[in-house]
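Let's practice the habit of predicting before peeking. Look at the sequence and jot down your guess about where helices and strands might fall. Then scroll down.
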Amino acid sequence: MTFKHVLVHVEPGPASEARLKYAIALARNFGSTLTGLTVTLPATEIPAAMAGDAQLFNAAVEAAKESAIFAKRQFEKMIAECGLSTDWRNGEGNPVQVVSAEAGRADLLILGGQIRRDLDGGMYRLAPDDVLMTCGRPTIVLPEKIVSDFEAKRVLLAWKNTPEAARAAHDSLPILIQAEEVVLIEIVSTDAWNGHYTISIEDMADHIRAHGAKVAIARLQGKGSDAGDLLLNFASKNRSDFVVAGAYGHSRVREWALGGVTASLLQRAHIPCLFSH
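Done guessing? Here is the structure:
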């Protein structure tokens, strides 16, 4: 079990360079084909505020094209001696739509965690939470802190009996199987009751162990709205280097307003996180 095809979003700047190093290391580890993807903003995606100034608008269009060219050069330079099977894609359109569509032919997508506005690329903007909701593929979101080496030796796997968590557990199996330790963790909420039929965390642990992963179980008590912070605190104390979680089991509006695991991890995680939705 492996990731045959990995897709990484590429843009100008040091964060993207570190992301490429991370993607190359991951692809080497799994023997994957690595595809780099950038987006060229068409005139229709240039901010409307620029439309009233022809000179500024034309400059933004050219900057968007130059940004894509620079991203391709960066990709070609970094893969020159990596020994991997590689491919390059340059999609023209709305960044979220392009990345989500291209992800459909990948086993794994790698994104930067921060919402970036690349001024050299015509106000290029790609929010990872938008992509998570629309791409349909497991996505590693890297933290704002520069991370360039792929490590997933001590993995924290967030469990809740939801479709999103189940999908994340299965999507991440290639990583879980290689890990030295997987902690399957459940937040036992003190402020909610679910009368639906569920499988136990022990059953899920046995299922993952059947694939060859080394799994331990942890339970934490707390309010559902604090689940994200509880997971992050546990990850820090446990020296976890990778997190796996289902993305947006509740609506995004509810999570960002009231608190939730996905929003907390996107905002505050200092280690890479794999999400599935």
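How did you do? The longest strand covers residues 181-189.
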